[in-house]
Amino acid sequence: MYEKKIPKDLSCGLNIAIEVIGGKWKANLLANINKGMKRPSELHKSIPQASARVLNQQLSELEFHGIITKKIYNVIPPKSEYSLTPGGESLLEVLYAMKNWGEGYKETFHKIIEY
């Protein structure tokens, strides 16, 4: 099995938070699940620029970390729904704080990245 040359330092809470929510689409997925989008098809439609494979991978990681749960219904055609766990709900405050910071920093950021 592959092992990283420099292991992740997971003794720091900030590193753990980044490990859990770090991912291009994870914040969007969590916000959309919180808004009521529960089905995988709804989540995929809400982020059309992301591939289904990447979204499924990030949903699996969020589920693995205990941030969301996946309920599978025994029906035909198959149906599943995602929901936030208490840990996921506790992350919302952090995500909204990050969003507010980003909104306040947006103008400066755009000036910096202009060539």
TrEMBL record:
List GO molecular-function terms, semicolon-separated: DNA binding
Any idea where the HTH hxlR-type domain is?
12-110
Q: Which domain of life is it from?
A: Bacteria
Q: Do you know which InterPro entries this protein is assigned to?
A: HTH_HxlR (IPR002577), WH-like_DNA-bd_sf (IPR036388), WH_DNA-bd_sf (IPR036390)
Keywords, ordered alphabetically = DNA-binding, Transcription, Transcription regulation
Keyword Transcription regulation in annotation: yes
Task: Cite the Pfam families for this sequence.
Answer: HxlR
Name of the protein this chain belongs to? Transcriptional regulator
What is the source species? Chryseobacterium soli
